[in-house]
Amino acid sequence: MPRELADLTSAQVLDRVAGGTVVWPLGATEQHGPHLPLSVDSVLAEAFAGPIAEAFQGFTLPVQAIAARSLPQSGGGLSFPGTVHVGGDTLVRFLREALQSLFRLPLGRLVVVNGHFENEPFLFEALDQVRQEGLIGDREVFAFSWWSLVQDSWLATETTDFPGWHAEHAGVTETSLMLHLRPDLVTDLRPDHDRPPRAGVYLHPVDVDQITEQGVLSSTSGSSAELGEKLFSHVIEQAVAMIRDGAGLLSRKAGKKEQ
């Protein structure tokens, strides 16, 4: 089981985290069609965070479940009930202030695992603001959305007609991961949408019926617990390898690798 930072006492925390790894999962409370719970992004981010923290004898933070607003072309928008969100400026400020307090602890590495598509630019902005303030120093930061670590070769082998990650909202990969991790939260419905939205296009006014079918942006066909298990293992393997290798980090420029 991963160790929770919040389970430490104030008297313990400085010694326990000194020079070590802290993993923070960012999720959302967002509609994911009629077959998946509102907690998908949080469940997945938290699930990925645990094994990553364990691989480096680190600690996890509680998942952040209030996120950036859902957009029609990547999350179905706000036409479906259940999404709880804040504006981008509010999210940047929250993340920046949370990161400022985190970096007052003597941790050596922060890993942020994002599970909500719309969070990513605000997370990166907040991190860069904290970097410019000089609070990170020479400590290592790895912040990523879990799908960014999925190799094209894996997708080519394991999926067909992949629509792109922007349209993989409540589709085959998220459904499969939830079938693997929390099958008790997945209904028997398998809605499909055969016209995935284009990436990188903002539209107004939006024809919701054209963009999404019941809050799903692509197909759930082919989803299975077996595929979810394969994908989960692949992402963990890629994440641990990336952190151990540290390619691109000034702190590793001499070729040092994490053991």
UniProtKB/TrEMBL annotation:
<dbReference type="Pfam" id="PF02633">
    <property type="entry name" value="Creatininase"/>
</dbReference>
<dbReference type="GO" id="GO:0016811">
    <property type="term" value="F:hydrolase activity, acting on carbon-nitrogen (but not peptide) bonds, in linear amides"/>
</dbReference>
<protein>
    <recommendedName>
        <fullName>Creatininase</fullName>
    </recommendedName>
</protein>
<keyword id="KW-0862">Zinc</keyword>
<dbReference type="GO" id="GO:0046872">
    <property type="term" value="F:metal ion binding"/>
</dbReference>
<comment type="similarity">
    <text>Belongs to the creatininase superfamily.</text>
</comment>
<keyword id="KW-0378">Hydrolase</keyword>
<dbReference type="InterPro" id="IPR003785">
    <property type="entry name" value="Creatininase/forma_Hydrolase"/>
</dbReference>
<dbReference type="InterPro" id="IPR024087">
    <property type="entry name" value="Creatininase-like_sf"/>
</dbReference>
<keyword id="KW-0479">Metal-binding</keyword>
<dbReference type="GO" id="GO:0009231">
    <property type="term" value="P:riboflavin biosynthetic process"/>
</dbReference>
